[in-house]
Specification:
Elements lengths: L2 H27 L10 E5 L6 E3 L6 E8 L5 E15 L3 E15 L4 E7 L12 E4 L3 E6 L2 H28 L1 E2 L6 E2 L1 H24 L3 E5 L9 E6 L6
Length: about 240
């Protein structure tokens, strides 16, 4: 790689990193930390020593199915975003930020609705959603480190694509002349650097995606399934 291309590549990477850090600062400024959210573990049903701590760095996803006794409707599927507040042997209480509900009918039709609870605050006589443990299908969770790395990957891909598709043509087109002229060599250098940056962000993005943990009873004894438990109940 020539020195000029190296300088262009370094500049693009710095722009991408700055873009990501600014986004992270805005996200962190709006987060509310609550230690009660950090008291739970996902434990692999086949390998109990394999544990994932649900940290309070932000909301995570939970999906559960609620059967419906109705001649027309089969079931409701709830997709929640939020945090676990309490957990016992049969139920958990979930503090909801956002909710999507899919009402599945026996004729195959589906009605979807969305609810936003992000600005809702529980009063003394209210409680988070109570969910039956056996009804939970999965939890989508990503650690704080993976979340930051994923954001960096997405920002890198965005900056790389913008550099190749937008900046490279604009920076190398001379608008002073009536008919205009184009600096092909300069365009290739900038576009090449943008493609390299975009490609660098792809593996970061793929390797740090949110993970899905299928939930089942601890007796399932299958590496594809996990169960929930309080940290204070775990003995090493």
């Amino acid at each position: 790689m020539q020195l000029k291309e190296y300088k262009i590549l370094s500049l693009i990477l710095l722009i991408g990193l700055s873009f990501n850090l600014n986004a992270q600062e805005k996200d962190n400024a709006g987060q509310v930390q609550d230690s009660v959210f950090a008291n739970y573990l996902l434990i692999n049903s086949l390998k109990p020593k394999k544990k994932i701590q649900l940290k309070d760095s932000g909301p995570y996803g939970l999906a559960y199915i609620e059967p419906v006794k109705d001649s027309l409707k089969a079931e409701n599927i709830y997709l929640l975003s939020g945090n676990i507040r309490t957990l016992d042997a049969t139920t958990l209480e979930f503090d909801i930020r956002n909710e999507a509900i899919e009402q599945n009918f026996k004729d195959g039709s589906i009605i979807s609705t969305q609810n936003d609870y992000s600005s809702f605050y529980y009063s003394g006589n209210q409680a988070p959603r109570t969910v039956n443990i056996n009804a939970i299908q999965y939890i989508d969770y990503s650690s704080p480190t993976r979340t930051v790395l994923h954001s960096i990957g997405l920002s890198t891909m965005f900056v790389g694509a913008a550099t190749t598709l937008v900046l490279a043509p604009i920076l190398n087109y001379n608008f002073k002349f009536k008919n205009g002229n184009f600096n092909g060599s300069g365009y290739k250098n900038i576009a090449k650097a943008g493609i390299i940056v975009f490609a660098a962000g792809i593996p970061i993005n793929l390797l740090t995606k949110i993970k899905r943990y299928n939930i089942a009873d601890k007796q399932k004894q299958d590496q594809e399934f996990w169960y929930l438990e309080k940290i204070e109940n775990i003995t090493e």
